[in-house]
UniProtKB/TrEMBL annotation, chains A, B:
InterPro entries: ADH-like_C, ADH_N_2, ER, GroES-like_sf, MDR_fam, NAD(P)-bd_dom_sf. It comes from Flemingia macrophylla. Keywords: Oxidoreductase. GO terms for molecular function: oxidoreductase activity. Residues 34-347 form the Enoyl reductase (ER) domain. This is Enoyl reductase (ER) domain-containing protein.
Length: 352, 352
């Protein structure tokens, strides 16, 4: 058994990232601050939770919603409370356990706090990490929630088939880079959009996309899509919304499919953009499915079985943007909404 | 064999409804005019078409698109040409035939011209009418294209099941009134929206909807839907778009389904309304399918088998708004876009 660095029972300092107040519009770094508390590295008496040391924290677009004060609340999420630490997905090491399935030294991934140590009251939902010959941070990405999302989007929700024309927006991001590589492995023609030349180069040269374009340099997204998809798009993985979605609707093939797991361009603007082409859903008899990884966790064993060998054989690569130290977490998180990240954005709180 | 009233070969006057010029925004009566030509009641030598006398013409929302000069053209439609007669679905009687499957006296429904007599060059796509103990005008509605749409929407695209909560917009229209009755026959809770108190009364008192509301008198469509669907909507048949679609997205159940066959509120406005709630497609993992009757014509024999007995046994009723004479066609057609019609809008050119 790997020994945890800290001893269970010890009282230690615990740095935390706190929400200052509910966020309107773009989140700014100043909406978050760090403070230091102390924590006893022990699950409270009678608790069947676990006390974990957080190693890698995942920056995810959905976190923007959790910062807002909204009437509509998605079930299954812990909305943030001003004055309290924010939460998200992360990789952690068990320091103390009140749960029979977990013991000190276990590596896990799942929902945790943005802090150095967290007491997780319902550890049943954590995934135990068994494969440690891959970077542990991958469990915030290719082997974590974005991996489930990409796998489900391509293989289950999209039922993508060999030879199809696939378009991926936010293609260099946590989900997009994987979804594109999965579609390539299936034998599809795959084009991605991203927000910088550097990201476009990454897609074309390192991730094996057939083509890619910088949406910020395309005055006419419809024309850009027609250039890359003269015959139209069979499957679109939608992550951005707004103008891009509108242009895609014009360029879908009859009976094309769209899988929507996000619309990041629409999260921060006071009024969403008007879409002109929704009627094409009917004209072209499109099938549009919203989905989240949450409905596909049952696929995880199959995903591990498929993807771990692909990583080992270097048939799939995964680009991460890791910032060191929890104090740099707020900047990394808000950078997600301006596309500052290059690949999957991770915060390394500790490496072991 | 029923003898046609006119004799094949005779030269007769042929009144036609002509498109004056391409339409922008709301079609007006003045965008159309009638003129009279003459026509020989005979298929041209060597043609394997049919010469028909038009009896009932169908006013359909899609006709608005055919009046426009647009770059995007749906396949399978004959876009209108200024100076020429418009076309649509209708019921007609064969006067002369150059096609082995048709002979004088046959009753048919399908695509025809807005004129007294039409030469239909590809009669293969016409449906022959065999059941004549129901009103012939029904073949523009419950037993025609809107019938296929409603049947496909509820039974195929929507896979609606007993006990589900179903919302139908444009519920007293050609498709909505039927879709609601089909859902009631399945054992669903069904609520419809319409644009006048008279239509709401029709839905509740004659068509058997569980409830109905006048969307024009609801300042807050979200609140209205929450009133009728406190637990949310399982299936929505979308025909109107805009504000209603946006409010529905807020009120769908998780994994709810939407079938879109039209968005009539958006056809005439210069800029489509901005939808605020598209993210709910992802939040609630909705499945949204565009569809048209055109993909479901193979269901027609089954529809006849199911629906004709329902009509005979008065288990389904069908409300038509029939105007007499082709000259009144333009007003009837443009009235569709302001909701002037009460039930399925039909133009009776002749009754036999």
């Amino acid at each position: 058994m790997i020994m945890a660095k800290n001893n269970a029972g010890e009282e230690v300092q615990n740095k935390q990232v706190i929400l200052r107040d509910y966020v309107n519009g773009y989140p700014r770094e100043s909406d978050l601050y760090t403070r230091t508390n102390s924590i006893k590295l022990q699950v409270p008496q009678g608790s069947n939770g676990v006390l974990v040391k957080n190693l890698y924290l995942s920056c995810d677009p959905v976190m923007h919603f959790l910062m807002r004060k909204t009437e509509f609340r998605m079930s299954g999420y812990n909305y943030y409370v001003p004055g309290s630490p924010i939460n998200g997905y992360g990789v952690a090491k068990v320091v103390d356990s009140g749960h029979p399935n977990f013991s000190a030294g276990n590596l896990v991934w799942g929902a945790t706090g943005w802090e150095e140590y967290s007491h997780i009251q319902n550890p049943e939902k954590l995934f135990k990490i068994h494969h440690t010959d891959v970077p542990l941070s991958y469990y915030t990405g290719i082997l974590g929630m974005p991996g489930i999302t990409a796998y489900a989007g391509i293989f289950e929700v999209g039922s993508v088939k060999k030879g199809e024309c696939v378009f991926i927006s936010a293609a260099s991001g946590a989900v997009g880079q994987l979804a594109g590589q999965f579609a390539k492995l299936l034998g599809c023609y795959v084009v991605g959009s991203a927000g910088s030349q550097e990201k476009v180069d990454l897609l074309k040269n390192k991730l094996g996309f057939d083509n890619a374009f910088n949406y910020k340099e395309e005055p006419d997204l419809d024309a850009a899509l027609k250039r890359y998809f003269p015959e139209g798009i069979d499957f679109y993985l939608e992550q951005v919304g707004g103008k891009m979605f509108d242009a895609v609707l014009l360029n879908m093939k009859v009976h094309g499919r769209v899988a929507i797991c996000g619309m990041i361009s629409q999260y921060n603007i006071p009024e969403p953009e008007a879409l002109k082409n929704l009627m094409h859903i009917a004209f072209k008899r499109l099938n549009i499915k919203g989905f989240t990884h949450r409905d596909h966790h049952h696929l995880y064993p199959k995903i591990l079985e498929t993807v771990v060998p692909l990583i080992r054989e270097k048939k799939v690569v995964y680009v991460e943007d890791i910032v060191e130290r929890l104090e740099n977490g707020p900047a990394a998180l808000v950078g997600l909404f301006t596309g500052r990240n290059f690949g999957k954005q991770v915060v390394a709180v500790a490496h072991n």
